[in-house]
Design a protein that fits this description.
Radius of gyration: 13 Å
Order of helices and strands: HEEEEH
Strand content: 35-45%
Distance between the termini: 40 Å
Length: about 70
């Protein structure tokens, strides 16, 4: 990953087969996962936004858990 995304205002890449992107909008960083804006998720820094996206991809999905 590059450390230049704050100056550019936009950055995208793939992470473990998923498209991830961040966009600076009005001083807040918006996040996109697989080309879908993640509503209600805004970050103060580009680094925090990318870190959140990576954690989101790394989290295993739980399907049909039985209790």
């Amino acid at each position: 990953m590059q450390a230049t995304y704050e100056a550019e205002g936009f950055w995208s890449d793939t992470y473990r087969g998923h498209a991830i992107a961040i966009l600076n909008h009005g001083g807040r960083w918006l996040v996109y996962l697989d080309h879908v804006l993640q509503l209600r998720m805004q970050f103060a820094s580009a680094e925090a936004a990318v870190s959140w996206l990576q954690r989101k991809v790394d989290r295993p999905r739980v399907r049909g858990q039985l209790h």
